[in-house]
Amino acid sequence: MEREELRSWLRLLLTPGVGNDTARKLMAAFGPPSDVFDAPAPALREFLGPAQAAALAKEPEGLSAQVDASLAWLAQSQPGVPRQVLHLGDTGYPPALLNLEDPPLMLFAMGRIPAQWPAAIAVVGSRNPTPQGKSNAHQFAASLAQAGLTVVSGLALGVDGAAHEGALEGASREQLATIAVVGTGLDLVYPRQHDALAQRIAERGLVVSEYPLRTPPLPANFPRRNRIIAGLSEGTLVVEAALQSGSLITARLAAEQGKEVFAIPGSIHSTQSRGCHALLRQGAKLVESAQDVLEELRPGLLVTLPAKGERTDAGLVADLAGKRLLQALGFDPVGLDTLVERTGTSTAELQARLLELELAGAIARLPGGLFQRVGSG
Questions:
Q1: Whether the Cβ atoms of residue 375 and residue 309 lie closer than 8 Å to each other
Q2: Following DSSP, what letter does each residue of 320-331 receive, concatenated?
Q3: pLDDT tens for residues 224-266?
Q4: What is the pLDDT of residues 104-116, one digit of tens each?
Q5: Taking 80 as the threshold, does the pLDDT of residue 301 lie above it?
Q6: Hey, which of 37, 109, 260, 369 has its CA 20 to 30 A from 202?
Q7: DSSP3 helix / strand / coil % (the chain, rounded to 5)
Q8: Is 352 exposed, middle or buried (CB count within 10 Å of its CB: 0-12, 13-18, 19+)?
Q9: Dmax of the chain from CA atoms?
Q10: How far apart are alpha carbons 223 and 251 in whole angstroms?
């Protein structure tokens, strides 16, 4: 994109009081942003209120700096990890987003823009999942990617990060493995813990944002970007979510777009399962495996991938004492005292056995001295 074209799009994007809807009406009437700014004031006033017209008549503060920063950012493209800025008129703009009520005017992207956008599934959930929830996100995403679907999520801690990791594991080297839709400018990574993950996603998928460079992680940006996550996807899978989770916003937006919503049930005692249970009561499809999702989106396609919880020391878990302890654990978090009562085993022996199972990956240690079984085996 040439400097003047980029400048006109950024000016329209950054003009206070002129949102995406008004911007699209202006472009429908006058053409690209450069023509909008050249349009006579009386004609513009047919679409704008007085405050909007006044804002459109002058350049937004910091526009030149934003243009310079964007061009410098684009110039840092690397082989295999291109950087691009897409706008509504670009041939590479995701066609699925054009069906949104509020499609983004611009998309900043790091990674491969596909010639044809692939079928995709959103996998979202809690930033503080249980060990089982994190394992489920990884397992489902890996299986769905192996089936050829691109996994879309939000690069947040917890379920999002596990979903991206699973997709990178399950996808072939040729396919667009995963798309991270972020709520900041692409010149920074939020959270910082996912800096390396974002780079790996850019190498085998895409990191995208509707926000211009230098946009910090403002709280309002994250619920807003969820419409893009839902819009890029054929359906949305919620792995774990509290009742006030932003993942439920993504699920609602997907349903409003006429797309499938899937939810994994969990323990009735877990707050992280209550959002999923609420979705199920509202008509979401209950899923217990990736195949349940594929039956809706890809009928007849069979894909199997071992669950993370099954990748343990087979001899240890097959041990009779280990099996009994796993049965005593169940699938809800359990304290040591409760396990002593259930098994009749001494505390010292129980602690040793729990450590063995933890090292084998069959259980996870939780805050508060609790233990939880991981996987379905």
A1: yes
A2: HHHHHHHHHHTT
A3: 999 999 999 999 999 999 999 999 999 999 999 999 999 999 9
A4: 999 999 999 999 9
A5: no
A6: 260
A7: 45, 15, 40
A8: exposed
A9: 85
A10: 11
Per-residue tokens: 149: 């679907």
pTM of the model: 0.84
Question: What value does the mean pLDDT of the chain take?
Answer: 90
State the burial class of residue 284 (Cβ atoms within 10 Å of its Cβ: 0-12, 13-18, 19+).
buried
The percent of residues in the chain predicted with pLDDT above 70, rounded, is 93
Task: Mention every residue, 6+ apart, whose C-beta is less than 8 A from residue 344.
Answer: none
Integer Cα distance of 74 and 372 in angstroms: 46
Q: What's residue 300's pLDDT?
A: 61
Q: What are the structure tokens assigned to 43, written together? A: 């004609």
**CA 377 to CA 375: how far, in whole Å?**
6
Q: What DSSP string describes 165-222? A: HHHHHHS-SSS--EEEE-SS-TTS-SSGGGHHHHHHHHHHSEEEESSPTT----TTHH
The token pair at 206 is 């895409």
Range list of H helices, 75-151? 131-146
Residues 156/123, Cβ–Cβ less than 8 Å: no
136 pLDDT more than 90: yes
333: confidence class by pLDDT, cuts 50, 70, 90: confident
Coil, strand, or helix at residue 265?
coil
